[in-house]
Specification:
about 300 residues; extended
């Protein structure tokens, strides 16, 4: 029987890439990855470990599937590629996790509850949602309002405990707050950012986008004449989940050529209803301000 082929020099790049990633992870971490992947793909941990070792040694997916069947337990190319991709995803997730934890620790923002939540985050979306409120920011309307001393008013409004709001206390022309309305508007800006950065709210809206999002295409007026071939999409919308591939590609080409603008939007009233249910309590003056903030978030 002819010996199995050895890994070829052309596979050296893959080998170096995998060695690099292997050096980033401890044995305990790699074992954890293997257990996660085995559960997700419904295969044995030993099969995942075999694929990881063969990839680290420079094997490509076709090579492993064809010549290392005994080692992998007869995994096919699709399964091997899934193991490879998930190993990379988990490594990148942990790399980003450590960067976030390091950043928060340096800025003395790493509270125990947040730390535990970051460690438990199962994907990049959850991880980034948790980090969003603590990410270094440009000067948003919310930050400007905080600089004007309006955060205590925002917190009083957000509690919605029927206490008098007394926005007049926060009038300070020297800080740019000349009226009660300006104080309330600044407080709403702060509340809107809290809502926007709440991981639970973002998760709910993401689910709404996925299931009921609508893709909306509009013409760029100044390029309307030159973009006649896209006229079918000058004023077009349809459920994103049901859009045909050829229509989506046409709209994307139109956007690329600066003829169309595209957006994916959830059903507006359903989105507001979801946020109101989560944040608006009762029907007092504070609840009215929170409701306005929801519409601005």
């Amino acid at each position: 029987m002819a010996p199995l082929p050895k890994i070829k020099p052309m596979q050296q790049k893959a080998k170096n890439n995998w060695r690099c990633r292997a050096n980033m992870n401890t044995k305990a971490t790699m074992n954890q990855y293997q257990e996660i992947i085995a559960q997700e793909l419904k295969i044995k941990t030993g099969q995942v470990a075999a694929v990881a070792t063969l990839l680290a040694d420079g094997g490509t997916v076709p090579f492993i599937a064809r010549y290392r069947k005994e080692a992998t337990g007869l995994l096919d190319e699709i399964q091997i590629a899934a193991v490879r991709d998930r190993l990379l995803q988990l490594a990148e997730l942990d790399k980003r996790r450590q960067a976030i934890i390091g950043s928060l620790s340096e800025r003395e923002l790493l509270e125990p509850k947040l730390h535990q939540a970051l460690l438990a985050a199962a994907n990049l979306t959850i991880l980034e949602d948790l980090y969003l409120p603590h990410r270094p920011k440009r000067r948003t309307r919310s930050i400007i309002a905080m600089e004007k001393g309006l955060e205590p008013l925002a917190r009083a409004i957000f509690r919605q405990d029927q206490s008098p709001l007394n926005p007049a206390r926060f009038i300070d022309p020297a800080k740019g707050v000349a009226t009660e309305d300006e104080a309330l508007a600044g407080a709403r800006d702060i509340i809107a950012e809290w809502i926007n950065e709440d991981p639970a709210a973002r998760s709910g809206l993401r689910y709404l986008f996925t299931g009921k999002g609508v893709i909306v295409s509009r013409v760029v007026k100044k390029n309307q004449e030159a973009g006649g071939k896209f006229r079918d999409y000058f004023d077009w919308q349809e459920p994103a989940a049901k859009v045909a591939g050829h229509r989506l590609l046409a709209m994307l080409r139109g956007e690329n050529e600066k003829v169309l603008t595209l957006a994916v939007r959830p059903p507006e009233e359903e989105a507001f209803a979801l946020l109101r249910k989560r944040y608006v309590k009762g029907g007092g003056a504070a609840a009215e301000q929170v409701n306005l903030a929801v519409q601005d978030s």
